[in-house]
Amino acid sequence: MIATSTATLIPFGTEGWDTDSMHSTTVNPSRVAFNTPGLYEISIFARFKVNATGYRQMNLRLNSAGDPGLGSTLTTFAQAAGPTTSTSISRTFDLLITNAGDYVELFVTQSSGASLGLDSGERVTGIMARWVGTNNTA
């Protein structure tokens, strides 16, 4: 459950595809770690349970150690809650990783006035990171 007006770190208990040991379901399950420097296409997405009040927000942070006030914000996206259905929010962007070992974590916030759950499942709430390639220019 996501408490109202509280940035909450999202751990991920499953993996859909992981060819570079970027995620562990037992050690730091909230992190997607980059072992290979280069350009990545990142998608973040969250689907909040039905509640028509307030806004829903995602904040993706780099190297935040599980703290919404640490590390660096890579992107923040918010939208108003849907009136009668779940509220789905998503964002896709490119991210250049220069240091092996850097990682991202997803924080969500909602302002419904009460605790609110997230829907789960593949491509419902999560992070996808796809390695595009390296930059070989000097």
Explain what the structure shows.
The chain is mostly beta strands. 0% of the residues lie in helices and 43% in strands. It is built from no helices and 8 strands. The termini are far apart.
Quick overview of this protein structure:
The chain is mainly β. The chain contains no helices and eight strands.
- Tertiary shape: elongated
Return the average pLDDT rounded to an integer: 93
Largest sheet: 5 strands, antiparallel
Taken as a percent bin, the fraction of beta residues is 35-45%
What's the end-to-end separation, in Å?
Answer: 47 Å
What is the tally of beta strands?
Answer: 8
Structural class: mainly beta
Helical stretch count?
0
Helix content: under 10%
Q: Low-confidence stretches at least 5 residues in length (pLDDT < 50)?
A: none
* Secondary-structure element string: EEEEEEEE
Radius of gyration: 15 Å
